[in-house]
Amino acid sequence: MRTAWLDVSAGVAGDMLLGALLDAGAPLDGVRAAVDAVLPYTVRLTCEQVTRAGLRATRVRVLATATDQPRRTWRTIRALLEHAPPALPEQARGNALAVFARLAEAEAHVHGVDPEKVHFHEVGAWDSVADVVGVCAALHLLDAGRVVASPLAVGAGTVRAAHGEIPVPVPAVARLATGWQVFAGGRGELATPTGAALVTALAEECSDLPPMRLEATGVGAGTRDIPGRPNVVRVLLGTPAPDFGDTAGPGGDVVLEANVDDLDPRLWPGVLSALLAGGASDAWLVPVLMKKGRPAHTLCVLAPYGRADALRDTVFRQTSTLGVREHRVRKTALERGWCGVDVLGSRLPVKVGHRDGRIVQATPEFEDVARLAADLGLPPRVVLAETAAAAADRGLTPGAPVPAGLGRREPYGEPAAD
């Protein structure tokens, strides 16, 4: 299943998005069949190549073939979609219903009417119906099961509407874009209610281009050709790829996180130990304050990609959380090895991290320091200071050349070398 990334940084309208999807390879005949299933003998889609600020793009025109076009309500449109023949695929039908429901709610909120009775231009007009159904059908035909979109340019200034001059973004767009990342992007109305409804109803997140193996691109044109700013929507289509590592398969690292406010704090050491024993690279707690002022902890687990599933199960099994979020991360690790140093009659292993042939850091394991301190009846700070001095005598200091013979961790308790 493919990912479609919508670049709406220059604004969006329904016909612009449909043009971009057709330009990316959606078959025009298949889209026409889906639209005809909802609006039989009513409209005809045509495409033409145009330029916008010097960029080639596909412009879609929705032409009326029937002279008597009724003003349809949301209730009417829902019935048309629900009873459309199989030429409208089920996925496209469901998406179109979701888009129109969102659009009807926004228009009803703005005008203070019942959503069932909304019959404003953006919901009831035949060209808006064709745009929404066409976009949903094109995504289905392109096998785009996941949609992601960029932040949305909405415009600035004012625009003349049926009720007079209104500010931009127009109220319906402002309602639809609530919770979305928006910016002005230029003067005039850059995002229409239909375009905003399509983006916010179909896209699962607002983000930059996600990792993908790019397979196709498409550019859809708006009606106006604005000098110096291409009035286009772009679509980048591809198969998901991992954030890092080998592009032929999963790689890199994952951070698993869960907020927990109801676990007996005495259990946390065991939870962290279980995660580390299960293959986590690291596991830690961050104190947080949750809703209603409740103190809690965020459990964080750094895991190799291949261990993420098993460690996620461990989090669910060992804690009371109801959900785990995760994101890919890039980890840059120093090369490392172990070197033994003589400290107070015993041999302690020191971990040496190095890069490009030079030592970056050299530190003992604190557990070894604590055990030696307990054996000798000394404060751990004294043993730490002695270990640092011994490491410096051995040449294990930042910036020094990496010594020959770095190896595996030596066991604690070996006697000092003669």
Describe the structure.
The protein is of the alpha+beta class and 418 residues long. The chain has three domains: 239 residues, no CATH class; 77 residues, Alpha-Beta Plaits (2-Layer Sandwich); 85 residues, Ubiquitin-like (UB roll). It has twelve helices and 20 strands. It has a five-stranded mixed β-sheet. A four-stranded antiparallel β-sheet has the order 15-16-14-17, with helices on one face. Strands 18-19-20 form a three-stranded antiparallel β-sheet. A hairpin with a 2-residue loop joins strand 2 and strand 3. Helix 1 packs across helix 8. The longest helix has 22 residues. It starts with a strand and ends in a 25-residue tail after the last helix. About 2% of the residues have low confidence.
Descriptive keywords:
418 residues, alpha+beta, Alpha-Beta Plaits, Ubiquitin-like (UB roll), 3 domains, five-stranded mixed beta sheet, four-stranded antiparallel beta sheet, 12 helices, 32% helix, elongated
